[in-house]
Amino acid sequence: MKVIETVLPGVLIIEPQVFGDARGFFLESFQIERYREAGIDMPFVQDNHSRSSRGVLRGLHFQRTRPQGKLVRVSRGAVYDVAVDINSDSPTCGRFVGVELNDENHRQLWVPPGYAHGFCVLSETADFEYKCTDLYFPEDEGGLLWNDSEVGIPWPVEQPKLSAKDQINPTLRQLLGRG
Fold first, then answer.
1. Catalytic residue among 35, 49, 61, 106, which?
2. What pairs with residue 47 in β-bridges?
3. How far apart are CA 44 and CA 178, in angstroms?
4. Where are the beta strands (DSSP E) in the chain?
5. Residue 107's pLDDT is what?
6. What pLDDT does 179 receive?
7. 57, 78, 116, 172: which could form a disulfide with 123 (CB 3.0–4.6 Å)?
8. Does residue 61 carry a catalytic annotation?
9. Alpha-carbon distance 33 to 14, whole Å?
10. pLDDT value at position 15?
């Protein structure tokens, strides 16, 4: 497996080894020893699977007091996946990493606890799967406005399909109490 460091501390792009032939392919989507060697050494306690249609944008989400690390991948379709540093003490606060995850490149993104995360669907439908290091608590959820101009994410859609809560998330400045 190939591990690619990004501009954000701890955020990693993972390219698993894929074994394929005329019958199809095989890959390990998680193997504890290999991921531990890559620096992902937290226990996973919950697996999630969502299916979304083209133009759906989910995020940017995080949990306030019980942050989740997420190991994300796409098993069908394609998404543009994003992690944003929202730690006010970090030198990379407000910066993001964006990467296409799809069922052909088999890439994964490791988003450590403490980052906002979201994705936009590029294909007709996408199956998005992720492992979490803590349970989901709705009352602890926070959000960051998807199109905050200060963060400047180049989303591949101008008018995404958003949930009601994602339409009204605060900007980074508001989130950090600076405006």
1. 61
2. 131
3. 34
4. 2-5, 12-15, 18-21, 24-27, 46-53, 57-63, 70-76, 78-85, 96-102, 108-111, 115-121, 125-132, 141-143
5. 98
6. 62
7. 78
8. yes
9. 14
10. 95
Continuous segment of H or E residues that includes residue 55: none
Task: Verify whether residue 106 is a known catalytic residue.
Answer: no
Q: How would you classify the pairing of strands 125-132 and 70-76?
A: antiparallel
> What six digits make up the tokens of 100?
């296409």
The CA-based angle 168-172-173, given to 5 degrees, is 105
pTM for this entry: 0.94
Q: Which two tokens stand for residue 78?
A: 């394609």
Residue 147 CA to residue 167 CA, distance in Å, equals: 10
**What is the structure's pLDDT at 83?**
98
Residue type, 100: E
Quick: pLDDT tens for 102-135. Answer: 999 999 999 999 999 999 999 999 999 999 999 9
Choose the catalytic residue: 35, 80, 115, 130.
130
DSSP 161: B
Show the low-confidence residues of the chain (pLDDT under 70).
179
Question: Can you tell me the distance from the alpha carbon of 54 to that of 35, in angstroms, rounded to the nearest whole number?
Answer: 31
Q: Output b/e per residue, 2-33; b: 16+ Cβ within 10 A.
A: ebeebebebbbbbebeeeeeeeeeeeeeeeee
